[in-house]
Specification:
Elements: E1 2-5, H1 8-31, H2 33-40, H3 44-65, H4 72-96, H5 102-124, E2 126-129
Antiparallel strand pairs: 1-2
């Protein structure tokens, strides 16, 4: 099964949002994990590694946002990775809900809403193409 992008300029904008949001939050989270840990009530190591993973997503997004042609398998992988981030954050909520502050809980929930929302919107821009039938 192959896919095509319904609205290429819109998808490129989404990928830039994905990249920019991921890059900014990941760099802040990596360098300020120790600062945010007591504010969020989430261990510093957890915040640090969450943001290292987010930086990876941001870098993949940049490889899709910058070129004029989109690598479709990489795009599908990015969308799948964004969807995978939702249950990861649900697990983090499960383990840290008791000790997380209100801000920490809102942070984890915002990860689910924002990244899951991006995955949904980006995924809606893909359209299945029927396989070519050989004569």
């Amino acid at each position: 099964m192959t896919y095509r992008i319904k609205d290429f300029p819109y998808m490129k904008k989404l990928l830039w949002v994905d990249f920019a949001a991921g890059a900014v939050t990941s760099l802040l989270g990596i360098f300020l994990a120790g600062f945010f840990a007591p504010i969020f009530g989430i261990p510093e190591a957890v915040l640090f590694w969450m943001h290292v993973v987010t930086l990876g997503y941001a870098l993949v997004s940049s490889t899709l946002a910058i070129p004029q042609k989109v690598n479709m398998p990489r795009l599908i992988g990015l969308i799948a990775g964004n969807w995978l981030w939702v249950p990861v954050n649900l697990v983090l909520i499960y383990f840290y809900f008791g000790e997380a502050t209100l801000l920490g809980k809102l942070f984890l929930i915002s990860q689910i809403v924002f990244v899951g929302g991006l995955a949904y919107i980006e995924g809606r821009q893909l359209e299945k193409q029927p396989a070519k039938v050989l004569p």
